[in-house]
Amino acid sequence: MLDYVRRILTSSVYDVAEETPLERMELLSARLGRQVLLKREDMQPVFSFKIRGAHNRIAQLSQAERARGVICASAGNHAQGVALSATRLGIRAVIVMPTTTPVIKINAVRRLGGEVVLFGDGFDAARSHAEELAAKHGYVIVHPFDDPDVIAGQGTIGMELLRQHPGEIGAIYIPVGGGGLAAGIASFVKFLRPDIRIIGVEPEEAASMKAAIAAGHPVALDQVGLFADGVAVRQVGTETFRLCRELLDDIVTVTADEICAAIKDIFDDMRAIAEPAGALALAGLRRQVELGEAPEGALIAINSGANVNFDRLRYVAERAEIGERAEALLSVGIPERPGSYRAFIRLLGQRAITEFNYRYAQGSTARIFVGIKLSRGDAEKHEIIALLEGHGLEVIDLTDNEVAKLHVRHMVGGRVSGLDDEVVYRFQFPERPGALLKFLEGLNDEWNISLFHYRNHGADYGRVLVGAQVPAATRDSFIAHVEAVGFPYWEETDNPAYRQFLDHGHT
User: Fold this and answer.
1) CATH code of 428's domain
2) What number is the average pLDDT over the span 6-29?
3) Whose CA is closest to 371, among 394, 351, 346, 343?
4) Domain match, 305 and 362 both
């Protein structure tokens, strides 16, 4: 730990990076009844903390190494840091970026002087290609997180935090991808203030550090969600794992909806727009406060960046209400007879309905898909469910059902009779030409596609719901095809949202 403290104190960060402010979130502090502070790394010249570690590493290069040029693999933030630092020092910088990288980050790297090479669907493929190019051309690799100089550069944030808030600090919440930021901050803070809790925060769909600590060594995740692309790392580093296992007090995982709610919190308080990874730490802070697990004292969250495509805000706005537990999505069975809808609305009283979907179906019971605005979160939702059930209505809570939120709410009424052997799968398709064709190639002619729903959410990957008629005898072959395609997938054939609103013959 002492070695890292020395590296942090002697780092060459401030040649290009800035000391960012630590700001109180007035609205959120009042709402939570706690002092919440936000470290504004989104205000760096490249709108992310990554400039710290990148420049500290590049500044240590010898003249011979500088002459060779540098290379890195990055989804964007590290890439911008490397490009800016190398350009300032007159060094060639080659940046390998996944083909799914947001355009805003690609353009930013080019504007900063980096030579962009687009390769692969994710970070791992880009990293492998960068290593191949480095071996071929002699470039010096600047690792995005698993390097002592990079870790030390990120650790300067911890030095600033203790100087900016010398009073009581209960916990510092840090977003975790590869682990470089958490390892750096924890190394400095735990040396001087071991009483402060250091909490790592990961998305539920990309919790690589949590998995590594549970296993006792870095492990590769089978699938990594890409919503928070800045922390979408399949496997953490060896050195970052060693430090995080030793120094982190806890790791919290949060949902995409909770991240969206935190983005909204930052906008409401600061009039600033964070990228999903940038709001990750605040989402973890909120979760711990709401569960009563946050320690006493000021609570600090690191806003790690603001490199987000504008189009993605559409998705964020749609999901923020659910993430704040300000909206409930319910499936309700009401009698299929005149006056039932009016009676249902009367039961809800003055509560605001955010969404209502219905189509006539044969039988005695009609299924409605309804969104209801909440002012008291889950407690109010449970009261509404109890009220409806008390009047003899069948209710299923779909608030946390991904198929319902992403697809079914836009498809209610799409029933078809006479379909046999239908199976339903949810996929994440990369947003690039040829992704759909890759899925369709190799499909057996016996497997008739019976349902297909895609909606552009402004993300770097498409959310797709696919139904196909697959006879039982060829089910194993179908699964093998799905596996071979290589896209993240989930079977949803038994999902209640599908069964109630889209399935053939079910009511």
Assistant:
1) 3.40.1020.10
2) 96
3) 351
4) no
